[in-house]
């Protein structure tokens, strides 16, 4: 292939050309807008170089919402194509690209970013810390994720999207069967974003283990912090596997390696194994923070403490251990025999036990409570029934002999969407609505929020329940079309209707953000939900240093105790506060990673070497840099505290 | 509240469809393996419905009873740590259910991974099923014939499919005869099936394998044993033999209709097993090579007897 041919889209369509124009216009508009309003300096000083966990959290949040719409657009196109038998809206190649990017964008760039957003904003506040343990590394994590996401998202306009599925099974994803640069983007963009995630994992483990407020022993941590700790432990154990697998895939594709090829001793199932050794724990990386969020929201709006705190902790620890010993259930049909399948079948079903404990504990938290139905609570309550259905179908899939019939069908698609959507998306929307006032100083409109909830939850059911039926009737997943005689038409049409309801729900969320930004009251105090944990004990908006005086903790609900039982959270005098300096290096270094990634995708070796040298230069710069941060003097702390409503 | 009602309704609707007048393919088995799987599926749906209904009931009870609108303004919910008996029950019942399901699962695993029950007395019909982008090649070593994109099988005889792929991983699936199994490029996997009733069944590749994946299907004609023998004779008499040249032509990516040949490609393009496997592991490979030779011997014997 000629050098320049590689940059062309191998399989163009009017929609892709239109997107190209739209992307260019948007970029021009952003640059022009920022220049016109003279905001470059503000953008650089306050956001691009920030190391503040709260701002990094907000940037993750904005990125996650953008990616939600990118992945959602893919989903709508897929459902529209399959809504009718023998539809010609998309051809096979486009459909394959779209379901591939839908999966990758939703899991890696939407869901992961969303949990990072909430962990970043909430965890340091919840443990009474000033920031994370390594604020600059935190900025590096975000920018690596951001530039990795950008690299992945330009694929469809430069060189072509990956088209081998989000699981990217070899040999289909190898050079032999996938000649465009699409899968190079997959291997390298996810690698860059994955490095960011791994760094976050280390950062948050250290933060949670070393920086908790005095008195907060491990068993007095709020449940969201517990789930964040366990999630990050899983990240640190699971992501290196992905790193290695992606590196091997990259070597196969760029340097003629034979790890996963059909010839010269390559093993195609090695990729599948490595992928799912990471991939299954990844599922729990997504779901555990969601469990943590529900464990914060349900007690708040039941006005009661979380039922069975100890068994909640035990169950997330147990889930995290089991998550590493079930990966084979993703390919029971590989032919490994009855013995191996039996073992993995039992371990898989065993996960239902700790998960069941959690469901029952949430239900018993409602017992003798005083339940108010707010938007975050509505999502939490809607999660329980839908997730239960998704969960029990997971147990059914875990029965390996029966899985031979479910595997690769729409039944499986129905199952995992019915756990991921209530499990992750509902939790993120619940968490977003719940912590929004702490982030931005006003509340989202409840009426519009409830409308969004009903659209999204009914849409989820309408979109995914029919897939159970078409799956049992023999519809394989990832089919871009089917004949009328199959009788799949009605079920797929229903799914399309559900998908439209979901899309409408997400549009109302955006409208809600716009509406509330314009009209919502700014006079909401610092604790609008009458909540229970420490993040509500500081001012809104949260000052740079979070807490002027480090809180004293006596239980997992220290703030509640301070309101109801006379516990004294803050005592002592203001002191000078040591804060980290902002730095542009994480942003610059990650941008160079983007250049490195782009040049690897297209095998532009000279540029790759230059970029690599640039990255080493950034590392060296950091090694020799003397930066001890700065101190906020007592006077300034006093002034800020008085302005925000006095000492707390 | 509305959504719970809607969900319950929907569940009943699902159950009605599952057991209703027009049975779904997987729940309309035509062979012993598919029957085992359908039984497991229906049993698990039953047990799972019980769990779902229990959770729904508790949730509805809590929401009806403990809403703030039902309580006096000064009611302060108590602080409750947890209760060993309650927690024992919510651990114990799921543990029991998982134990029951595990026993069912393990038993059914050994059933579907062996010659179907009741068919052990006769030798299974061995068919090599090889996928290539985006076709299926079926070789009958015993009969010395080969078909593309369609299968003829005798009823009431165990079938042993030897699966492998020329390229991406595919999955051989005939829902009404039994669940699927992967076909890969560097090894041969075995799928045990059998058909109880004559008929034409849908078969397909279930594992995404690129552009032509959606149309990567084949038809399965299950016929009475003597009818099958007639078909074999007819093919041997009327069809052309498969040459290496022709075979390589067939492997080219694309779609083909149904084709029939009076010889197989196994001689000049052996499947990846034994000495031809992707991974040699010393002794074990020697053993399997021996097994392979024995099997070839068996096939020859069959040919003589026929």
UniProtKB/TrEMBL annotation, chain A:
Keywords of this entry: Cell membrane, Copper, Electron transport, Heme, Hydrogen ion transport, Ion transport, Iron, Membrane, Metal-binding, Oxidoreductase, Respiratory chain, Translocase, Transmembrane, Transmembrane helix, Transport
Reaction equations catalysed: 2 a quinol + O2 = 2 a quinone + 2 H2O; 4 Fe(II)-[cytochrome c] + O2 + 8 H(+)(in) = 4 Fe(III)-[cytochrome c] + 2 H2O + 4 H(+)(out)
Entry-linked InterPro entries: Cyt_c_oxase-like_su1_dom (IPR023616), Cyt_c_oxase-like_su1_sf (IPR036927), Cyt_C_Oxase_1 (IPR000883), Cyt_c_Oxase_su1_BS (IPR023615), QoxB (IPR014233)
UniProt xrefs under Gene3D superfamilies: 1.10.287.70, Cytochrome c oxidase-like, subunit I domain (1.20.210.10)
Domain Cytochrome oxidase subunit I profile: 38-554
Matches recorded under SUPFAM superfamilies: Cytochrome c oxidase subunit I-like
Cofactor comment text: Binds a copper B center. Heme A3.
GO biological process, one term: electron transport coupled proton transport
Keyword match Secreted: no
GO MF annotation terms: copper ion binding; cytochrome-c oxidase activity; heme binding; oxidoreductase activity, acting on diphenols and related substances as donors, oxygen as acceptor
Annotated Gene Ontology cellular component terms: plasma membrane; respiratory chain complex
Cofactor(s) recorded in Swiss-Prot or TrEMBL: Cu cation; ferriheme a
Protein task: Catalyzes quinol oxidation with the concomitant reduction of oxygen to water.
NCBIfam families, per database record: QoxB
Protein name as it appears in the record: Quinol oxidase subunit 1
Natural source organism: Sediminibacillus halophilus
Species classification: Bacteria, Bacillati, Bacillota, Bacilli, Bacillales
UniProtKB/TrEMBL annotation, chain B:
Bias kind Basic and acidic residues: ranges: 273-284, 296-306
Cytochrome oxidase subunit II copper A binding domain ranges (all copies): 122-234
Gene Ontology MF terms in the entry: copper ion binding; cytochrome bo3 ubiquinol oxidase activity; cytochrome-c oxidase activity; oxidoreductase activity, acting on diphenols and related substances as donors, oxygen as acceptor
Presence of keyword Signal: yes
Keyword Kinase: no
TM regions (residue ranges): 40-64, 85-106
One Pfam entry name: COX2_TM
Cellular component per GO, a single term: plasma membrane
Catalytic activity: 2 a quinol + O2 = 2 a quinone + 2 H2O
Membrane topology classification: Multi-pass membrane protein
Keyword annotations of the record: Cell membrane, Electron transport, Membrane, Oxidoreductase, Respiratory chain, Signal, Transmembrane, Transmembrane helix, Transport
Gene Ontology annotations of biological process type: ATP synthesis coupled electron transport
Signal peptide: none
EC top class named in words: oxidoreductase
Subcellular location: Cell membrane
Domain Cytochrome oxidase subunit II transmembrane region profile residue range list: 18-116
Family per similarity comment: Belongs to the cytochrome c oxidase subunit 2 family.
Protein known as: Quinol oxidase subunit 2
Organism expressing this protein natively: Sediminibacillus halophilus
């Amino acid at each position: 292939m000629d050098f320049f041919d590689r940059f062309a889209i191998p399989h163009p369509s009017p929609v892709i050309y239109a997107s190209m124009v739209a992307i260019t216009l948007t970029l021009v508009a952003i640059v022009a807008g920022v220049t016109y309003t003279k905001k470059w300096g503000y953008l650089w000083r306050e956001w691009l170089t920030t190391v503040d966990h709260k701002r990094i959290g907000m940037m993750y949040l904005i990125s996650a919402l953008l990616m939600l719409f990118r992945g959602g657009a893919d989903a709508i196109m897929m459902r529209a194509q399959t809504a009718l038998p023998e539809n010609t809206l998309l051809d096979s190649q486009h459909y394959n690209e779209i379901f591939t990017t839908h999966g990758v964008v939703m899991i890696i760039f939407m869901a992961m970013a969303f949990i990072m957003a909430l962990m970043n904003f909430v965890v340091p506040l919840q443990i009474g810390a000033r920031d994370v343990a390594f604020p600059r590394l935190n900025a590096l994590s975000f920018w690596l994720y951001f530039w990795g996401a950008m690299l992945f998202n330009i694929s469809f306009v430069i060189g072509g999207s990956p088209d081998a599925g989000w699981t990217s099974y070899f040999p289909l994803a190898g050079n032999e069967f996938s000649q465009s640069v699409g899968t190079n983007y997959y291997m390298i963009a996810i690698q860059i974003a994955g490095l960011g995630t791994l760094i976050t994992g280390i950062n948050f483990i250290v933060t949670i283990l070393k920086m908790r407020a005095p008195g907060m022993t491990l068993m007095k941590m709020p449940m969201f912090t517990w789930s964040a700790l366990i999630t990050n432990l899983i990240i640190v154990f699971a992501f290196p596997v992905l790193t290695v697998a992606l590196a091997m895939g990259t070597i196969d594709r760029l340097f003629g390696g034979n790890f996963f090829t059909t010839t010269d001793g390559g093993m195609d199932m090695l990729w599948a194994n490595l992928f799912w050794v990471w991939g299954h724990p990844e599922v729990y990386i997504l779901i555990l923070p969601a469990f943590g969020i529900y464990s914060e929201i349900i007690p708040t709006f039941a006005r009661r403490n979380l039922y069975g705190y100890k068994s909640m902790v035990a169950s997330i620890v147990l889930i995290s251990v089991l998550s590493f010993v079930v990966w084979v259930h993703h390919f029971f049909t590989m032919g490994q025999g009855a013995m191996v399948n039996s073992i993995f079948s039992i371990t898989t079903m065993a996960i239902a036990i700790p998960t069941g404990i959690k469901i029952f504990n949430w239900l018993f938290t409602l017992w003798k409570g005083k339940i108010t139905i707010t938007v975050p609570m509505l999502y939490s309550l809607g999660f329980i029934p839908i997730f239960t259905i998704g969960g029990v179908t997971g147990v059914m899939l875990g029965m390996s002999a029966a899985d031979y019939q479910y595997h690769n069908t729409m039944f499986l698609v129905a199952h995992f969407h019915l756990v991921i959507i209530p499990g992750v998306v509902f939790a993120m929307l619940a968490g977003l609505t719940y912590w929004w006032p702490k982030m931005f100083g006003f509340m989202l409109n409840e009426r519009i929020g409830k409308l969004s909830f009903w659209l999204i939850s009914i849409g989820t059911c309408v979109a995914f329940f029919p897939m159970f039926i078409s799956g049992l009737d023999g519809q394989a997943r990832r089919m871009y079309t089917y004949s009328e005689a199959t009788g799949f038409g009605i079920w797929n049409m229903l799914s399309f209707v559900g998908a439209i309801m979901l899309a409408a729900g997400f549009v109302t969320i955006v409208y809600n953000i716009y509406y509330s930004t314009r009209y919502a009251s700014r006079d909401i105090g610092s604790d609008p939900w009458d909540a229970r944990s420490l993040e509500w004990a500081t001012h809104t908006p949260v000052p740079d240093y979070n807490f002027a005086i480090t809180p004293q903790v006596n239980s997992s609900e220290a703030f509640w105790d301070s309101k109801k039982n006379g516990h004294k959270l803050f005592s002592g005098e203001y002191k000078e506060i040591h804060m980290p300096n902002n730095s542009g290096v994480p942003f610059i270094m990650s941008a160079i990673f983007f250049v490195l990634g782009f040049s690897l995708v297209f095998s532009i070796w000279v540029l790759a070497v230059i970029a690599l040298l640039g990255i080493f230069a950034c590392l060296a710069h950091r090694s020799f840099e003397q930066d001890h941060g700065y101190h906020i003097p007592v006077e300034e702390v006093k002034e800020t505290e008085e302005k925000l409503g006095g000492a707390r | 509240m509305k959504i719970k009602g809607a969900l319950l309704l929907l569940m009943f609707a699902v159950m009605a469809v599952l057991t209703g007048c027009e049975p779904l393919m997987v729940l309309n088995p035509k062979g012993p393996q598919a029957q085992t799987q359908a039984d497991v599926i229906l049993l698990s749906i039953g047990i799972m419905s019980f769990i779902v209904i229990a959770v729904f009931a508790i949730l509805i009870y809590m929401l009806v009873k403990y809403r703030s609108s039902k309580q006096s303004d000064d009611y302060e919910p108590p602080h409750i740590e947890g209760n060993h008996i309650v927690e024992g029950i919510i651990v114990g019942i799921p543990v029991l259910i998982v134990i029951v399901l595990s026993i069912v699962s393990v038993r059914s695993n050994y059933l579907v991974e062996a010659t179907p029950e009741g068919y052990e007395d006769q030798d299974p019909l061995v068919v090599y099923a090889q996928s290539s982008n985006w076709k299926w090649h079926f070789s009958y070593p015993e009969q010395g014939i080969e078909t593309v994109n369609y299968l003829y099988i005798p009823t009431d005889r165990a079938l042993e499919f030897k699966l492998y792929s020329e390229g991406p991983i595919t999955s051989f699936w005939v829902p009404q005869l039994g669940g699927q199994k992967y076909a890969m490029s560097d090894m041969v996997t075995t799928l045990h099936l059998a058909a109880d009733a004559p008929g034409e069944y849908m078969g397909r590749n279930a594992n995404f394998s690129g552009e032509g994946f959606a149309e990567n299907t084949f038809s399965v004609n299950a016929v009475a044993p003597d009818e099958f023998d007639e078909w074999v004779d007819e093919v041997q008499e009327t069809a052309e033999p498969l040459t290496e040249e022709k075979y390589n032509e067939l492997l080219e990516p694309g779609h083909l209709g149904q084709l029939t040949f009076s010889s197989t490609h196994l001689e000049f393009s052996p499947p990846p097993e034994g000495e031809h496997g992707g991974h040699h592991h010393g002794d074990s490979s020697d053993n399997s090579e021996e097994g392979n030779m024995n099997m070839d011997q068996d096939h020859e014997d069959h040919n003589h007897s026929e």
